[in-house]
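To: structure desk
From: M.T.
Subject: fold request, one chain
Message: Could you run this one when you get a chance? Sequence is below, nothing fancy, just the single chain.
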Amino acid sequence: MNPYIPIIGFFALTFYFSMKQSSVIDVIGKLLTPGLLVLLIFIIIAGIANPISTPMDPNVAKSSAFSSCFVEGYQTMDALAAVIFAGGIVQSIKAKGYGKSSIIKITMMSGFIAAAGLLVVYGGLMYLGATVSFMPQDIPRTMLLVNIVADIAGDVGLIALGIAVALACLTTAVGLTAATGEFFSKLSKNRVTYLQVVTISTLFSALFAGIGVDGIIRLAVPILVVIYPLVIVLMFMNLFSPVFNDSCRYAYMAALAGTLLVSLYDGFSAIGVTFPLWEDIISLIPLVANGFGWLMAATLGFGIGLVVDRISLAIKGSTSCA
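Reply: Done. Structure tokens follow.
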């Protein structure tokens, strides 16, 4: 079968669900996500009830398991999607007539529910992965998951997996397409309409999808290792914004600059490009070998920036930023 036949069908559905800006969150929340969760939990329960083999002893796992899994987790793009979807969720809650206090409560509750759902799904999939430690370590991710589900639940499981993957992709595609449409229509002050952006995004995505999962991952990984640490740092700084207020501008800038210094290096390394002097500087940062050099650089940058902020505010006779 020509791969563009299912691709066209998929993005036709994406376009259909994304057309009406006000209904996107309802479609995801009432239809797509519940169906996805039911199918994934079915696969996980089947794998727990009928494991392929004895799960690997966690004591024999390689010492870098956490760091390698954390960095590979960038490919889920969950944090990026959360940042992008958050605005749409808040706008959807506002559109239903809720006040500020209710919006905060509903958003927090939805965040806890989402975190619990991710914990169950990823924890379950990790368990399934631990039961197939005998498989080659270089097996493609898609093939690994297909083999696990086929061994656990046979053809029924493969059908469930296919539907689950389709729903997972559709949920993300609809949310991102809607968020893209909303962002660029607002940026252009509606000179380019929401529907026009959605149409262009859908057509471009349909063409790009033809390179396949592995091709998309190869292109995405260098970009993700640059962007993801920046997003994580921004999320944490936003959480602590009541403590470190808007006058801590140098602290924020220095934290992001330190993060970018390391994440850009990781991005170039991912495509095989290295700079000897840059590499010498990066190698001095603790945890860089484990993929967490950006964390130390962000912390150091934030500390230096905070000192600069306090000196600057003291000179101006203003209140300290923290």
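Reply (cont.): Residues 108 and 114 are 10 Å apart (CA to CA). Let me know if you need anything else for the meeting.
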